[in-house]
Structure formats: structure tokens, C-alpha cells
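To make this tangible, we now present a fold written out as C-alpha cells:
***
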Amino acid sequence: MNSIPLSLQNSENRVATDYTAGMLTEWKRRVDKGEFLEDWQRIVTRKNNFLRQPATSEKYQYKGPHLTDKNTPLTNSIPVTGKSKTNVEPTLWQRAEVYEAALWSLLKADTKNPVEEAQVREINRRIKDLLLFYATTPGLRFSDQNRWDGKFHDLSPGYIISLWVHQLEDVFHVCKHLFSSEEKEIFINWVFSAAAFSYHLLRQDLSKPFKNRSQGNYEPVKPIAYGPPISLHYAGENTYAGNRFYNNRRLAHLPLVAKAGAMQANQKSLGITIPATIDFRKEAEQIYKEAIAFALYPTGECVEMERNDDDKPSQGMGYSFIFFDAIAWVPYYRLLEGDDSLYFYQTSAGILGSEDPTCKTPYQLDSMGKNPKSLLKAIKYQFECMSLAKEVYGTRKTENYTSAQKELFRYDGSGQLQKPEWLSGHFLMTLQANLGFKSAAIRQGCEHPYEAQGRAKVITNKQSDTVAYAGSGAYRPSEGIFGLESCLILKYYGMEALI
């Protein structure tokens, strides 16, 4: 494990739930020096789009998912005849433009330019109004159990909404000085009601494949945990339903649960009063450890590799990095408190093939054998596949292929047989995790991800070329999990020495 700088051992260094004073100073320096221009230019564009709308515009006023005839929110398991998905979850504009306008205001808070000063004030005022709008909108009243409890599982829009609230709490810190004590309490309680929604969803769903999760007995139960088997790749391990309960969509609820725990632990430095009825911190840590035990394999493989198919033999790589990003928020929040130990958590426990064969008590979460799993090991595995150091093929077919035939299905991040130019950028999501790992292999993988394939894209200290990767699409990998964590490169690349 790494030693933690003294600056991080003092919780007063936290100026927001998600970053420290030192991080904020470095972000401002990068902007002032004109570094990472592609990230910054996108921020400016979205800030301008935000300000171009009238202050009373409904463009950003997401009111919650539409209802079915049974008064429950629509999910992607229910046909939405004549309705687009934007009727279900917050749109890109309601997410990215609000967030990046707030980020622009944060990084320009000390400007001496009169025009920029006026824009900072206007953005902060509008964002405050929007946050209170969300917190008081009936369709987003998470405490309404008839509307929210027990219906979403790993379906959209539940996990998108959870990630969106996680993002909005970050936005709150830009303009919290404008909130009265009563307004601050309204917003913070709303964030915690959303975190409670995600907390109860995870506890309910993740109890199903085990004999007695609440008592630490992770013996898988039939029939739910055992079917159906799906191969991770050509001649690879089988994964079962019990492993797939820890998929990227369900785990996308985890960042908000982890954030609620961090808020509870740091309320003094954040200047807020936090409800304490749920131990979010304990639950987040337990799920983080479970994900490593039951969704990662001793080889370093991740359960999300089952998403590979013959047309998209590297599809599982993108989903694996989304999985890593979701669970890595748990050790990240501990890192900001001066504790990096969770980054280096290892276990040999597992079920249905995810266990280390040398482990004598695989159904006990912290059990150890000779070949344990860890988040770092799993991330490195994906980068080794990208660098062609591992020979893995993303097809479930079992034919005796020749070497040339197998090469068509190479699991290397370059994705789709029908689009050979496509490159995945989801590896960028490991930049934040590497603040804890400080791994040269992860940094090298992000800097030169496709060098071994002769099609390198490079991060430098002046540009962030990787944001231009094809295949970003709606998931926008350079902007974090499902596009809900903007400017990963500007905020996290090269920051290991600072934290």
C-alpha cells in the first residue's frame, strides 16, 4: 500500500464530497495554462448552451420517469409505445450541460473578467433553482415507496437516475453558499432519499442468490444462482446467474450509496447535517468486497466479459471498465479520508467458479487462498488484453479455429467486426482509480492504449486526444460511467503524485 500525504489525513482538506482543495487548485492551474483543451472546449460549449436557454426554460427540468397505468415508473422492461427513452431517464442535456456549466463556474470562480464574473453568478443562481426544483418535484420523491421500491432491479432508468443524483450532489457544492439552511436541508435530504432507494434496491436484489447474505453466508442457492451458464470467451470460464447479479447496471447504484457514506463521515468539513438512519458506508464496503469475490475470477477476468459476442468480440471490455468504475468509488471516498486500504483488498472467496480453487472456505467473504482476486488485478488483465500480452478471443463458439480464424475475434478493445476502425475508450474510467493504485501499468495503458495494435491514441499534458474515440456514443466513456462523470482526463490524469 502507498503512504498517504499529510494533506489528505486532515478532513478539512475536503472542500466537497468528491474532491480536495489541492485537486481543485490543480484543475484551475490546468485551465489557466491551457492544458487538456479538448475537455475544456467541451465544457465551454456546454456552458454556453446552458446560458443560451431562458432562465425559466423547461429543457433541464427533468420531472421523473413517466408512469404506467399501474402508477409505477416506466423501465426499459416495459414497452414504451410512441414514447422515446427521454421520457424515461434524464436526457444528456439535463445531465451533461448542467454538470459542465457548474464545473465551468467552479473553475472560473476566481476570475477577474467582468463578463465571466457575471456568468458565474448567473450559472450559480440557475443551478440552485434547478437543484431545488429536482428536490421538490413529486415525480422524484424517492421516499414514495409505492412509486420507487422493488421495481427497478438492474433496469433503466433506475441506475441512470441514481448516477444522476450522485452527480448533482457534486454540482451542489458549486453554489451551496447561495442556499439557506432550510434549502440546504431540503436538498441534502433529497440526496439521501435517493441513496436510500439505491441502498434498499441493492440489499434486496443481492440477497436473492445466497443462502443468508445478511449473516455472511454466501452459499449459492438453487435455482436462482445456477443458471444459465455463459462462457466469458473462447474456451473460457462459465459464468452463472449468481455471478451476473453483480453486473454493471445494478452496481451503478453503488456510487451514490458510497457517496452517502462519505457525506455521513465528513459532514463537519462539508458544513452539512446528515441523516444517520442507514449505515451507507458499511453497506458500500460490503458490496465492493462482494463484487470482487463473486464477479471477478482468479485469472483476472470479469463477469462482464460474458457480453462479448461474435459481432462484437470486445464488447465485454467496455462493460468491464464500467463495472470497475462503479465499484472504485468506494475506495476513492476512503482515499479522500486518508485511507487507501480498500484499493488493495483481496479475497479468494467466490461462487460457481469465481472462487480461488485453493480457498477452503469460498462462501466466507474475506477468505484467502493462494491466488486471490483484486480490483487492481482485474484492471491490469484488461490492459494486458489491449496490449496483446494475453491471447483471448471474444467468441462463445467452440469450433477448432485456426490461428487466423481466431484472430478475427481477438479480445483487444477494438471492438466490432463490421466496424474494424472502432476503438473503445472505456479504459479512461480507470484514471480516477489510479489515484489510489498509482500503477505505472494503468497509467501507461491510458497513455498508449492501442500502441501494440499500431493504432495508438495518446494522452499528453496538453491535449486529451482520447476523447475523440469512435464508439463513445451515448455512453461517452471519456465522461465516465454512462456519461455522468465529465472530464476524466482533465480531472484525474497525472494527479497520482498530488493525492
Remarks:
- The chain has one domain: 6-492.
- Residues 1-11, 77-86, 461-475 have pLDDT under 50 and may be disordered.
- The radius of gyration is 22 Å.
- The longest strand covers residues 217-220.
